[in-house]
Amino acid sequence: MKSNTIQFILDNEIYTIDWSKVDFLPSTTVLQFLRAIPGHTGTKEGCAEGDCGACTIVLAELTQDNKLTYKAIDSCLLFLPALHGKQLITIENLATKTPTATLLHPVQQAIVETNASQCGYCTPGIAMSVFGMYKTLKIPDTKNIIDSLSGNLCRCTGYGSIIEAAKMACNTIKPDHFSGIEPTIIETLKEINRSTDAIELSHKHQLYLLPKTLKQALELRGKYPQATIVNGSTDIAVRQNKTSEFHHQILDISSVTEIKQIITTNNYFQIGAGCSIEDFKKFVQQNFHEFSPITDHFASLQIRNVATVGGNICNASPIGDLIPMLIVLKAQVKTASTVNSRMINIEDFITGYRSIDLHNKELVTDIIIPKRDNDSYYFSEKVSTRRDLDISTLSIATIIKLSKEGTVDDIILVYGGLAATVKRAKSCETFLLGKQFTLSTISETINLITNDFTPISDARSTTEYRLETAGNLLLKCYYSVLNELESK
Amino acid sequence: MNNSETIFLPHESAISHVTGEASYVSDIQLRNNLLWGQVYFSPVAHATIKSYELTEALKIDGIVDILDFTRIPGINQLNTHMHDEPCLAGDKVTFIGQAIFLIAAKDRETALKAAKKIHIEFEQLEAIFTIENAMAKRNNLAPSRRIETGNPDKALESSKYRLKGRLETGAQEHWYLETQSALCVPGENRNMTVFASTQNPSETQNVVAEVLGLQSNQVICEVKRMGGGFGGKETQANPIAVWAALLADATRQPVLMQLSRDEDQKITGKRHPFLSKYEIGFDENGIITAYIVDLHGNSGSSFDLSIPILERAMYHADNSYFIENMRVTGTMWKTNLPSNTAFRGFGGPQGMAVIENAIDSIARFLKKDAAEIRFKNFYQTQTKNLTHYGQLVNNNRLSRLWDQLIKSSDYFERRKEIEKFNHSNNLIKKGLALTPVKFGISFTTAFLNQAGALVLVYKDGSVMVNHGGTEMGQGLHTKILHIAAKELGISKDNIIISPTNTSKVPNSSATAASSGTDLNGMAVKDAIRTIKKRLKPLAIKMLSKMNPTVNTGRIIFKNDRIYSKSNPEISISFAELAKQAHLEQISLSATGYYGTPNIYFDREKGKGKPFHYYAFGMAVSEVELDILTGNTRIIRTDILHDAGKSIHPEIDKGQIMGAFMQGVGWCTTEVIRWDAKGNLLNCSPDTYKIPGIGDFPLNYKAELLKNANNPNAIHQSKAIGEPPFMLALSVWLAIKDAISSVADHTKEPDFSLPASKEVVLLSIKKLKESL
Hints:
The structure holds two protein chains of two kinds. Chain A is of the alpha+beta class. Chain A folds into three domains: 5-93 and 178-252, Beta-grasp domain (Ubiquitin-like (UB roll), Roll); 106-175, [2Fe-2S]-binding domain (DNA polymerase, domain 1, Orthogonal Bundle), CATH 1.10.150.120; 260-487, Uridine Diphospho-n-acetylenolpyruvylglucosamine Reductase, domain 3, CATH 3.30.465.10. Chain A contains 18 helices and 22 strands. Chain A has helices at residues 30-36, 106-113, 123-135, 142-149, 160-171, 177-192, 214-223, 236-243, 277-287, 292-295, 301-304, 309-315, 323-328, 346-349, 426-432, 439-446, 449-452, 463-487; strands at 5-10, 13-18, 56-62, 68-74, 87-89, 96-97, 102-103, 199-203, 206-210, 228-230, 249-252, 262-264, 268-272, 332-336, 341-345, 350-352, 355-356, 363-370, 376-383, 394-402, 408-416, 423-424. In chain A, the strands form six sheets. A five-stranded mixed beta sheet of chain A has the order 2-1-5-3-4. Chain A has a five-stranded antiparallel beta sheet with strand order 12-13-18-14-15. In chain A, strands 8-9-11-10 form a four-stranded mixed beta sheet, covered by helices on one side. In chain A, helix 2 (106-113) runs antiparallel to helix 5 (160-171), helix 3 (123-135) runs parallel beside helix 5 and helix 15 (426-432) runs antiparallel to helix 16. In chain B, the strands form seven sheets. Chain B has an eight-stranded mixed beta sheet with strand order 3-5-1-12-9-10-11-20, with helices on both faces. Chain B has a five-stranded mixed beta sheet with strand order 7-15-14-13-8. In chain B, strands 16-27-28-29 form a four-stranded mixed beta sheet, with helices on both faces. Chain B contains 19 helices and 29 strands. The relative contact order of chain B is 0.12. Chain B is globular. Chain B folds into three domains: 18-126 and 174-267, Aldehyde Oxidoreductase, domain 4; 274-444 and 603-770, 2-Layer Sandwich (Aldehyde Oxidoreductase, domain 4), CATH 3.30.365; 450-595, 2-Layer Sandwich (Aldehyde Oxidoreductase, domain 4), CATH 3.30.365. By secondary structure, chain B is an alpha+beta fold. Helix content of chain B is 29%, strand content 25%. Classes of the chains: A alpha+beta, B alpha+beta. Chains A and B meet through helix 2, helix 3, helix 4, helix 5 and helix 18 of A and helix 1, helix 3, helix 17 and helix 19 of B.
């Protein structure tokens, strides 16, 4: 018997949604759901595209060793089925209330004491982000605070008081009322998650498939090749919210745990397609820190907590943040169907503007990244109008290998944001090969960028800026390599 | 017992904010029958409407009604003064975003489905979007205005040095977190209750009444709070309230409308973009001898508030500087964009940016420090204290601010360090700038400077205060609470500030022009004075009864007690007094009123006293610039601001920080582009970038000027909402300073506002090429 229901914890009780009884779509967002049920209007819509954080909620979910992990997430970008087997914590849950008194959570108390709310509309989201920080025991230094709150816009305070509030709240973290009930929550979630059957939510206009194992996912993919694949939903939800894009069939693979891991072997790293960008960010910090300028400024924590490596690649956006570094790292995309499996170079996998080489019964399961070449230099940079929570105007990622004589032995030079896809600057690469790695060579190379790219002017920037900066980024790369050479 | 006057409570809604209990328009829960209202707006900038077809849309299940202009029962007009803004377009559209139809549906999805079935045939007309284009077509909104003092032409002629310049300043989207919204509930006899997110409930009430063909007394408008306003809900909250009211009136069901973020950004007006041209004369010391400036604003499609905004830009063209010979000419140009509107600063920032940029150029030309040139030109106290429009600059605190801030910010030390840094770094450059603000406080339309209040004392001693001002996060209600508590001498816990409601206080002005506390605080004080006057004889009677020898010369209301100044040990509680008053048939409620005295302006002569007083402030900012990308970041900002004797220092500091950062957005990342057809390209936060938490200065310090009582306003305080916005010009000019260092300050860089990464990078490129 296929399950037509999802279950999660809300207000410390099990909440069941049975699609044989309700009228709304399975792909209703958590924000839309909260605002439609009584007593949960504290969660606000500010933009419906994950760019303001007013709708931030926290999801507590079981880790593999049956502990709870708390994640701040934009509820406008989350489809309801993603709540299955998790605890949904909203702003209404933070304080403990008696009929006559309200005992604020330390996070709330800090916001009040630092005068960190003005109009109050962004405040629930801010409080939930700080709460997420509080529960994940981060050191409340300015860097971590900015990292945790860059997904929350506030137009009134100017942020200084919010930084103070976060510092005050997270300075001395004590067990709160959530800690007390964790054992019960864990048991309840284990119970909900006991069944490993795939969930198939059937609404008169929409079939929403939520497999839990890779095997189920591949079988469903084979059975419903037309279903839209969702792996994190942070992009598709924006389109649903803003363009009324409608999907009759959705195959949501974000609950498949097997593809969330990062496996290290002697020669390569195997990144599961379901690995969250936040986990990947940490992986990059440890293994390829030269690309942290991109992954550290990838969207916001709320988005990184649910968006996936597979999702970013399969979107094949010309400004997809991960693609340039993966090309540089000669990553391979591993796909699977119920019958076979393929390995494709990432460069070949992306076939055009938002188009990929994925057969209609396949899923991307992993990304294989060879281990770093310690004889090469890596460099990356992302340029955007605002430092955080901004899509790149353009980006660069490179790997350069120099000979003992100082000539360029090997180079991969990739730009995002300059063409319809992320693309290598092939004329520049060819020109550089065998040449002395000097400022004059770089200056000459810069003149060749127009051979490789004719960038457009759009809402984010101008052709002139993109071209000028593309050259400058190569200069930056040169100075960065020079620095490393000198420090050796 | 605590002295309640010295305890500053957090924002009166702070606890509701953090628990999520604070209610905004779209949070109001109704029992049933609630319909969703959707506006259908013009997708073209300038066209005649040849025909349209609604039948297909009306057939969709769940559509209750669709209104066009013929269905308006009253006047099809949103602007009750200028009559240049139809509520629903009839035969012609003049901008993208202009409302044509209103849809009432069971939900938003259904309404959007219906909208797709509406067909309109347009005949496109030539459209104008830029100031230059409007100039070429002589499409001015109204005749140019002029304010002149001395003999600017002659003085310019005889100036030792002259510089010419041109400056563009950009539009800015308000980006209040809560988009425009209204909930209308129809009542008996076509009466209408409007829950709106408006800075101007009285005007919203009036416009709803006119469009519905009702009298004002048939419409109630209530505002609990707004999720941000910043000027964007001064006039432009009216349309959505009127649209929802029209649908509620037609369907006899409650209607909620809330614009999506993209709709809000597309439909509503922005800060006026300006194009300014100037010529400035000065001597070898940098003293300005003449200044002639033409300010050109892009009004968009209609009047809205464009003329008062232009006036304020002209009044602030001098910023903080005494200029003996000066002429400022201002023109608003009409274009096919959504009508630009009020935004924090109200033209002031646009006027000030020009003179600040000009002084920066003077300093570079003379190879002197710009802060010193500024100091030399400041208004003085005894002489050189008359503005170009003839108002005396009273209680001038510019040199006090300068003295203290120069020291506390280590300005000159850091100037040297930065110079050293820039000489030894080629890829990263630093810049530093000090800028002052002098901002005139009052509505420049004199009659608007009035406010009303209604104070209700209940017989248990609790108090409800009603006033005409609205809460949009600025802390007005909190300040009013502090004022009322001080005036009544009772604990703040016993006072509630009521939602703003037009059935309590009529004919209020917009909560705008930074004047909310000044005007409404005075009105509340006036109401309380009336109540206390009534209660005093009773208090004397009660105190004398307790002790016949009590000296009843002066009765004090303090710490919830009422007593005689000379016998404080004998007292009654406020609750006892209230209860007794009720028993003795003494009225416990009173209205209060305040009108700012002695404000006038002669527009023909360009002279007068448009402002009640001035607020002053000053900032020093240091930035770091990546010359390869044009990206900048603020290293440090020091602010010293004159808030008078602050009613609530923490709220005032919050206003300073918030205004400053909003100004930083205008000066740096908030770029707005339109395409050739007038479509707004940056119509969502995806591409329109207000500052985020990572943009806050690495080091930030703001202080209020001490010993700065203001004799002109409530409890000697000063208005705070707008003036600190312009402190962000320090960041803007610090960026210019950093750019300029690329050519070792030998050349004037190309510059405009915002100093976006594009502007900065291309300016650097040009400087490098010129070397």
